[in-house]
């Protein structure tokens, strides 16, 4: 492997696995990573909840079907996937006769340099390890609240647990994570 391949993001590696081997686990990981982020971007861009979810589904389906067109020398997985979702959103807005928000026509932010990417990768690994070290009940609440972007009330409705229990588990989990990761990002 060349040094250039070693500096690509984990998401780009996953997309290459989808492109080259139709790897369903890699696609599931991409979906889990990008779906909430794409939905948030689409919501900020003026789409309603249901329409944003539909566009995310369509965009990720396009990622699966068009993965053979992905070229990591031309774009990162992130830029490629966000572009697919933005293009779909622009198509819908035009069809509906709505103005396209300016932020949708901007190019994605530049890729971080190798040192920043390495630091971010190391921090991500530490965060994943810290999350895995949490008691399962606490980890589940943190994942639902922060990765699933659910409110405490929505978690209570989904799990049947009292709201106070959910808040306590999240608070305890965040305290443990803060303690575990206290040396990150300190000057």
From TrEMBL:
InterPro entries in alphabetical order: RNA_pol_sigma-70-like, RNA_pol_sigma-70_dom, RNA_pol_sigma70_ECF_CS, RNA_pol_sigma70_r2, RNA_pol_sigma70_r4_t2, RNA_pol_sigma_r2, RNA_pol_sigma_r3/r4-like, WH-like_DNA-bd_sf
A Pfam family of this chain: Sigma70_r4_2
Organism superkingdom: Bacteria
Keywords for the protein's UniProt record, in alphabetical order: DNA-binding, Sigma factor, Transcription, Transcription regulation
SUPFAM superfamilies for this protein: Sigma2 domain of RNA polymerase sigma factors, Sigma3 and sigma4 domains of RNA polymerase sigma factors
Xref: PROSITE patterns: SIGMA70_ECF
Descriptive protein name: RNA polymerase sigma factor
RNA polymerase sigma-70 region domain residues: 30-98
Family: Belongs to the sigma-70 factor family. ECF subfamily.
RNA polymerase sigma factor 70 region 4 type domain: residues covered: 125-177
Gene3D superfamilies: 1.10.1740.10, Winged helix-like DNA-binding domain superfamily/Winged helix DNA-binding domain
